[in-house]
Amino acid sequence: MFETLSDRLDKVFTGLRGKGRLTDADIDATAREIRIALLEADVALPAVRAFINAVKERARGAEVSQALNPAQQVIKIVNEELVQILGGETRRLRYAKQSPTVVMLAGLQGSGKTTLAGKLGRWLRSQGHTPLLVACDLQRPNAVNQLSIVAQQAGVDVYAPEPGNGVGDPIRVAADSIEHARRTQHDVVVVDTAGRLGIDAELMAQAAGIRDAVRPDETLFVVDAMIGQDAVTTAEAFRDGVGFSGVVLTKLDGDARGGAALSVRYVTGQPIMFASTGEKLSDFDVFHPERMASRILGMGDVLTLIEQAEQAFDADQAEKMAGKLASREGFTLEDFLEQMMAIRKMGPIANLLGMLPGAGAMKEQLKQVDDRDLDRTAAIIRSMTPQERVDSRIINASRRVRIANGSGVTVTEVNQLLERFAQAQKMMGQMAGSMGLPGMGPMSKKARGRQMQAQSKKGKGGKKGKGKAPARRPAGAPGLPTGAGFPGQLPGGMPSLPPGQALPDLSKLDFSQFKDERPGR
Question: Quick check: helix, strand or coil at residue 55?
Answer without folding.
Answer: helix
